[in-house]
Amino acid sequence: MELHALLSYTFFLLFLFVIAGETVWANEEDRKVANGGFRPTKLFVFGDSYSDTGNNPKSLASSWKTPYGVTFPGKPAGRYSDGRILTDYVARFMGIKSPLPYQWKKYGENKLQYGINFACGGTGVFDTGNMQPNMSTQIGFLEGLIKQTVYTKRDLDSSLALVTVSGNDYGAYTASGGPEQGLPSFISRVVNQMGINLKRIHDMGVRKVVVTALQPVGCLPKQTIFSSYQQCNETDNSAATLHNQLLQQAVTTLNNSTKGSSFLVLDLFSSFNTVLKNKGDFTGSLKFDTPLKPCCVGKKGDANCGSLDENGKALYTVCNEPGSTFFWDSLHPSEAGWRAVYLTLRSSLNQIYN
Ligand SMILES: *[C@@H]1O[C@H](CO)[C@@H](O)[C@H](O)[C@H]1NC(C)=O
Ligand SMILES: *[C@@H]1O[C@H](CO)[C@@H](O)[C@H](O)[C@H]1NC(C)=O
Ligand SMILES: *[C@@H]1O[C@H](CO)[C@@H](O)[C@H](O)[C@H]1NC(C)=O
Ligand SMILES: *[C@@H]1O[C@H](CO)[C@@H](O)[C@H](O)[C@H]1NC(C)=O
Question: Where does the source fall among the domains of life (predicted)?
């Protein structure tokens, strides 16, 4: 590490606080020292279950069923995990509370101060057949609020957007019988639409836009179950690699066309792989012995985590310690998994202050 001594000290403190748990920043002063100018105070979130903290309707979503939320907040609360997810960690990084989901319309003015989460599980940049708002529609919700001057130009100028795309477009493509050889051109359409969306968010006045690269989708338990959770599917991983190469290109072009580096890719592909390979985080405080095996497993065939039979009996099993598994269910990291991923992304997140 060749950091300025003061910065090292600050980061060291940070490190301790992150490890300790709740508080990220030692104090306001440290934050100013570390970050120089831009200090985002609001977070707007668009995307799917990798960032949704409660937008899906209770009647539909597994995220509202037991045993989701068992670690945090202690009961199902709309997150696709046992606890905190990427959104919560990005908010923590910024030193703000996780923004409330858009669907929780009861919030008063004061609750809007940390931004809003528009992300909705199951959605894609295109329609995925689940009736929930696609990303264009989600962005339209913020546009509507800006028209109503719920957020001012100045608010937006001190805002960060987090955008997640974790593959529902591709799931829908395959489910609708899309041919394998058509996948590359479909990937390019998806990324093209992502570029349009990212630019639109920035053009609305949001100062910095952070977008996730696709995680190694072939390593999701949904795929690794076929090898008893031993091996990732490399065919799927190469599709993710193509997506990520195109995304990086699109973002570089966008970045070049704006002053100040306004766009940033959060490389979930590398960070998932690093954590899966290390079977834990780099500090050694989190350990995942069989990292490709989820905590919550459907008992048979199509049974998912959270589903019940007609007598109300669980069609799934849950591990004893969600904190020792990287994945929570067949698609989503556990809180501990997200935490390990977040720890690998922190240095990259620091670039939002450039
Ligand atoms: C998103 O959904 C809206 C409303 O259903 C639809 O009109 C629009 O075409 C969709 N956008 C994309 C990019 O698929
Ligand atoms: C990997 O995934 C592809 C579909 O994306 C599938 O056709 C193939 O059978 C899978 N390979 C293994 C070894 O499961
Ligand atoms: C955007 O540009 C800045 C410098 O202009 C650079 O540091 C950053 O890595 C670029 N980001 C991407 C995704 O190209
Ligand atoms: C973006 O700018 C960098 C350096 O300023 C340059 O090397 C790169 O080719 C540009 N990329 C695109 C896609 O315009």
Answer: Eukaryota
